[in-house]
Design a protein that fits this description.
The chain has 12 helices and 11 strands. The chain has helices spanning 4-11, 23-28, 34-37, 55-69, 86-96, 109-118, 147-160, 175-191, 208-220, 233-240, 268-280, 313-327, and strands at residues 42-47, 73-78, 100-104, 123-127, 139-142, 165-170, 196-201, 225-228, 243-248, 259-265, 299-301. The strands form 2 sheets. Strands 7-6-8-9-10-11 form a 6-stranded mixed beta sheet, with helices on both faces. A 5-stranded parallel beta sheet has the order 2-1-3-4-5, sandwiched between helices. Helix 9 (208-220) crosses helix 10.
Length: 343
């Protein structure tokens, strides 16, 4: 087995972001198994195509930093990795001795699978639009199935819109974005049945100026509330005095008068499940998307914060009712991966 000091030396050429963000939350949620704390840290590498500050990737990064702070893992990562470079970086980390490689292969599915087959002793946990395939036994897939929380945020949005005209700005019309938009729209219709939606995709995972420009156009076209699937949308909402609903992370502290609610993704349950299986040698091709469901602790609705007292009580009662039903398995939010359109 590769000596840990040698491994860390090899990893040093990759940029490392220090910190313990998320550790207290993870420990408080009871997602740091004692059986992992007692073992030698597992060497984990993250490969991200965008900055770690970007919403989706930030949740993976925070969970990894929490596990690192708990002594479960050593952790190194690469950000802003182009799809053309992704297979090469996968190989570099595998050659360096990483036991678990985490990342997102949405834009490099086939090439990534070719790498996986060359390193059967390395576990790969990758965001993917596809289900697990036994032909790649060491590749498990995940996605942010936070449709439960997105639906609840939609209930609040429907109660707050005055015009019933809602703008939605997404990155790409792929399943992991589409399902959240559809869930949000379903939630809106619970409290605003006649609502209409302007839907647009900017063709980028991280282009705040373009997202902002798109949002401005929707506001000019009558939208008084925006679904901020991408960074930049809430900036437009704030400047124009309309409301916004956040996605994946809670941005209300940055937009206290603008972001009324957010659907939060918690990657800790997903990562902890993978680490446990790497530790006991049972890691295999599997769908880790289930760990993002609300009943698994993988998503939640952010606290109302500055919007406490501003949301109609009837909407809050409905949110509480639906949340309880979701957690009890009595109500299922539909997963619709088809591309949403303006309506």
């Amino acid at each position: 087995m590769t000596d840990r000091r040698t491994l860390l030396t090899q990893f040093s050429r990759r940029r490392m972001l220090m910190g313990t963000a998320g550790f207290a939350a993870a420990a408080g949620a009871g997602v740091l198994p004692s059986r992992l704390l007692a073992q030698e840290p597992i060497a984990v590498a993250g490969i991200y195509t965008v900055p770690v500050e970007q919403q989706w990737v930030s949740r993976i990064h925070v969970a990894a930093e929490a596990a690192k702070a708990a002594g479960q893992i050593s952790y190194s990562f690469s950000e802003n990795t182009a799809n053309t470079d992704y297979p090469r970086v996968m190989r570099e980390y595998a050659e360096a001795g990483a036991k678990l490689i985490v990342g997102e292969i949405f834009g490099v599915e086939q090439e990534a699978r070719e790498v996986v087959l060359d390193y059967p002793d390395t576990a790969f946990l990758m965001g993917s639009s596809f289900m697990p395939d036994p032909a790649y036994p060491n590749l498990a897939v995940f996605d942010n199935y936070i449709q439960d929380a997105s639906y609840l945020s939609g209930i609040i949005a429907g109660a707050l819109t005055e015009t019933g005209n809602i703008g939605m700005v997404g990155g790409f019309p792929i399943p992991e974005v589409n399902r959240l938009m559809h869930a949000f729209m379903a939630g809106v219709r619970e409290t605003a049945p006649e609502a209409s939606f302007q839907v647009s995709f900017i063709g980028s995972w991280f282009d705040p100026p373009k997202a902002k420009e798109t949002a401005f156009a929707m506001i000019e076209n009558g939208a008084d509330l925006l679904y901020a699937e991408r960074f930049g949308v809430s900036d437009a909402a704030q400047e124009q005095g309309v409301l916004a609903i956040g996605n994946v992370i809670d941005t209300q502290p940055d937009y206290p008068d603008t972001v009324a609610a957010s659907a939060l993704w918690h990657f800790e349950p997903t990562l902890q499940a993978a680490l446990a299986r790497v530790a006991d040698g049972s890691f295999e091709a599997d769908n880790y998307g289930v760990y993002s469901f609300m009943k698994e602790g993988g998503c939640s609705l952010a606290p109302l914060g500055t919007f406490e007292g501003k949301v109609p009580q009837a909407a809050l009662d409905l949110v509480a009712e639906k949340e309880a039903a979701i957690k009890a398995g009595e109500f299922t939010v539909e997963i619709d991966d088809s591309e949403p359109t303006s309506s």
